[in-house]
Design goal:
Elements lengths: L1 E10 L2 E11 L10 E5 L5 E3 L1 H5 L4 E7 L2 E9 H7 L15 E7 L4 E5 H4 L9 E6 L2 E2 L8 E3 L13 E8 L3
Parallel strand pairs: 3-12
Antiparallel strand pairs: 1-2, 3-4, 5-6, 6-9, 7-8, 7-12, 9-10, 9-11
Length: 171
């Protein structure tokens, strides 16, 4: 199987992705199974499935094309709190202009505002899943999957997530 490897660049607020040379023989299941949490957090993290297994667990269900799957993992809120993001009153003011970008292995990105994740505001239950229907994620979805069950379209429920980057627009 061939996987495209590329470079994701952020410059002046613009995001671009450029593909690099293909890697032969490296599929999603063989790639390192870690989730990097970086950006405007107190502590950058590199989380493994074992790290997530030790955190409070949650489930979320998605139905697509007549098929329902129950995912298990950790709330995105809990992952960001572990990295030191100050939710609640600590987020008011300039912190309200902040978001987290979830990036998949192929460079696909989705955005969640911090206020939509915070229980004191919208409190959306977005999950960083590592299991589907009680088993490991299918190979193409590894190492982790974002599950946003509250979305009417599931375009933000992306798979093969490898990075979460917190961005604060007003430092």
């Amino acid at each position: 199987m061939m996987t495209l490897v590329g470079v994701l660049a952020v410059a002046g607020g613009a995001v671009s992705y450029s593909a690099g040379p293909a890697q032969v023989g490296q599929d999603a299941a063989a790639a390192p199974r870690v989730l990097k949490v970086e950006g405007a957090v107190a502590t950058s993290l590199t989380l493994t499935p074992e790290d997530l297994a030790k955190m409070p667990r949650a489930t979320a269900t998605l139905t697509s094309d007549g098929t329902t799957v129950t995912y298990e993992g950790v709330l995105l809120y809990d992952v960001l709190a572990k990295a030191g993001w100050q939710f609640g009153r600590g987020m008011t003011g300039k912190g309200m202009a902040s978001y987290v970008a979830a990036t998949a292995r192929d460079g696909y990105q989705v955005i969640f505002t911090m206020a939509e994740l915070d229980p004191m505001f919208a409190g959306e239950k977005v999950l960083i899943a590592d299991k589907a229907d009680g088993a490991a994620l299918p190979g193409r979805e590894m190492p982790f999957r974002v599950v946003a069950p509250g979305d009417k379209m599931h375009a933000r429920s992306i798979y093969s997530v490898v990075k979460l980057e917190v961005v604060r627009l007003r430092p």
